[in-house]
# Entry
Amino acid sequence: LVVGNMIGTGIYALPASLASYGSSAILSWIVTSIGALMLALVFTSMNRRFPKTGGPYVYCKNAFGKLWGFIIGYTYWGCFMVAVAGIVVATTGYIGYLVPALDASTPEYSRLMTLLVEVGMVWLFTAINLVSIHEAGVVQLVLTIIKVLPLILISLVGLFKIKLMNKRIKKNI
# Structure
């Protein structure tokens, strides 16, 4: 679940928008990655101390009381609602490259079709979660593999290209 959440739509959308910032964009990726790893380590440590379901709600309730557990629980829940909306909009944008009716920059664009696809995605994943935890876990695993596989492939191709570039540079020197 953590890998699936960390490697969301942003990792595929942000590089294009950050490219204009040059090497400072790489630095920001490194700083953000370090922060994400630290957050993961904090959640790992807290899960060892309080091995119960509930995530941040349980941790804050045990540390600061019921009121703060409630506040954090609902804030966390609200953040996920906003994140789901963002992920659905970004995913529909990606699908727009294949389906012109979902691409706002084409004449075939349809607001109604886009809305129906976005709402349909939310209900599809809601239904999968309602079926069973096992089914939701299988879907999460498959989607995580689909997200991680291109990153691994691009990294391997990139490493191969770096070796080729080094050979060309040495040859020219």
